[in-house]
Amino acid sequence: MGRPSRHDSGGRGCTRPASLTVARLRGGLNEIHGVVAGRPHHSPLGELRLPDDVRVHDGPGVLVIRQESVEVTGAADPAADTYGTLAAVRVVGARRLVSIEVPGLVAPADRDAQVARVHAELPPGSVVSPGQRVGVRFPTSALAVVEPAAQQAVDSSLPAREVAGRTSSSSDRREAVDAARRRGE
């Protein structure tokens, strides 16, 4: 049997999930791996500023945003956060669920071009087709960052006293992982 996952109790579990597992369980489709440095999240989508109420630590982080919150605009929209191509369009009731491939902006972690896939839910009446170029906006208030699943697995294997006493630096995380490995955990 699995273990219960933590979630935010005020109905914010969808927009401010406590973990990647909770984001997935609540139906979230967007997981953009990147790095947090200061307040922005850096990824193939570029640099996205996080809301002040999102608690983050510098280091690896997965940007999560509900597909209902992603705004799809015209390809010439100067206010778009990024641009991409519709890779897939699926009819879901009166709405359209689209997958957008965003071409490789340079990610700071590896400097290699990457392609990010972003999912968005369009309102009824939207007419779109695969191959169409679009603009994409990410409302700052809808952004959140959670730890990568690999880091969550490490945290769950550590004794509670080690997790509680950890700081957020990546060197401390590496030390905690190395200590767990030495103990055979």
Classify the beta-strand content into a percent band.
25-35%
Predict the CATH topology of the largest domain: OB fold (Dihydrolipoamide Acetyltransferase, E2P)
Query: Can you tell me the overall shape?
Result: globular
Counted beta strands: 10
Helix content range of the residues, please?
Answer: 10-25%
Helix/strand order, N-terminal first: HEEEEEEEEEEHHH
Instruction: Specify the biggest β-sheet.
Output: 5 strands, antiparallel
Highest CATH level, the class of the largest domain: Mainly Beta
Count of the separate structural domains = 2
Give the CA-CA distance, first to last residue. 20 Å
Q: Residue-averaged pLDDT, rounded?
A: 78
Going across the major beta sheet, what is the strand order?
Answer: 3-2-1-4-10
CATH 2nd-level architecture of the largest domain: Beta Barrel
Low-confidence segments: 1-10, 154-185
Structure annotation, total helices: 4
Category from helices, strands and their pairing? alpha+beta
Q: What's the gyration radius in Å?
A: 18 Å
**Can you say what the CATH homologous superfamily of the largest domain is?**
Nucleic acid-binding proteins
